[in-house]
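=== RUN LOG ===
request id: a7f3
mode: sequence -> structure
chains: 1
length: 536
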Amino acid sequence: MADLAQHDARGRGEQARKSSAPSPDPCIMVIFGAGGDLTKRLVMPALYNLANTGLVPECLAIIGADIADRDTKAWTKSLHDMLEEFVKDPNSEEQLSKVDEDVWSSLADRMTYVQGDFTDDGFYKSLKSTIESAEKKHGTSGNRLFYLAVADRFFGTIIEKLGKAGLVEEDDDGPWRRVVIEKPFGHDLDSAKALNEQVHAVLEERQIYRIDHFLGKETVQNIMAFRFANGIFEPIWNRHWVDHVQITVAETVGVEQRGKFYEPTGALRDMVPNHLFQLLAMTAMEPPSGFRPEAIRDKKFELFSAIETIDPDHAVRGQYDAGKVAGEKARAYRKEKDVAEDSATETYVALRLAIDNWRWAGVPFFLRTGKHMPERLTEIAVRFRRAPLNTFHGTPLDSMPANWLVLRIQPEEGISLQFEVKRPGQVVALEPVKMDFRYADWFAPEPNVGYETLLYDVMIGDQTLFQRADMVEETWRAVGDVLDAWKSAPDDFPNYVSGSAGPEAADRLIGEGAPWRVWREVALPEDKDRPSKEAP
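=== RESULT ===
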């Protein structure tokens, strides 16, 4: 009966999702960086998945722009080849069983490739002509979506030249013009402010979509529904009941072929002001007045504003040495391609931060992210305060573990609650058990790379999941002192072995003054069923 109920729930959920989703407006989508890895691995697979579920406009045209000299046929073939790679790779997030050639052909028929230099005014004249021709051919009603899948140094230049060419002008009653900007949006507070000023000279804030693919994941979007739609959790979601919160984004991969990008960036800039702070906002924000985009974004901004500027003494950085990850040999970061032999770039960061507001005063939030970790894992773990023990002195209950509520983002999306029960037998002893919800048990799995919802939201004009200028600046403000402090002599790198959970200093950070606080194991959900190593 349970299996039948789950099957029925899956069917109802799928039917409701398709019937309630409004159709996007006709539009033309211009992808800058059309030949890059981001377009091949994320943007185009997401468009394919949307097309496969009928959630792209009927009147859609796609223009790919890049510096490489190729034609449309070669470009579309390279994208199709990547989709085929997803089919062959059992570990791919895409989860494709096959490529529907009819769906792909329908997309490919709407695609055009243009070659040019993004810094050249002449290119934009050519692009404007291509856009106008495609608009007439495909009936896109003048709506334009520009996706900047390029290095961040091009963001300001492209937007300025789009404005100069008259490609993003927008009237209140006319066609819409929207620009999607990838991270990193700046490298510190000053550069973020400068970029915002440069962009705002051309675009209104309503036209700007600063994208973070973490927010496209179902479990991340579900955090607000979990918190605000269930009366049993919201009353205890505060300083009176929560001991601390851990947010972990662990990766098994190293820097791979991204040395040129990663060397001047590092783990903090790459992950914290965007990915981890977005998870933090969903977890700690106040209830919005409604699910309108600005109501939600206002509450996120309030949360970011309440984060105390992080003390450098509450930050730990690390860099991986050689070791083993998933049984395979892994080389040190300093041996990676395009990485300096004496590199001071961190591949791991752990932070302790405080939120200065009524709900969270006194509750520490611990954030960590790193490469070459034991498992690929993203989770938000809320540890509740321990029950009073006066009643149980002299019994085995003295070592009673904590209650945990864990929201798993990847790789296995779900929610689990750990609590104590009496172990069978004549002795009063407790055993931690879990109640688990897994998305895969209740909902039919769908191919998803995290960009589907975000691209769809851009097309319908919903900015809920996108950062606003003031939010970006507040996140950089929060980590500014740490970035400044780390400009000086680095720690003794490398300081953690590939395949380990990070440097020892991170353990001291979380346990300082509170020995019962220890990092959760970086392990997949099935591995966490073993007894916890947590201190009593």
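=== NOTES ===
The mean pLDDT is 88.
The radius of gyration is 24 Å.
=== END ===
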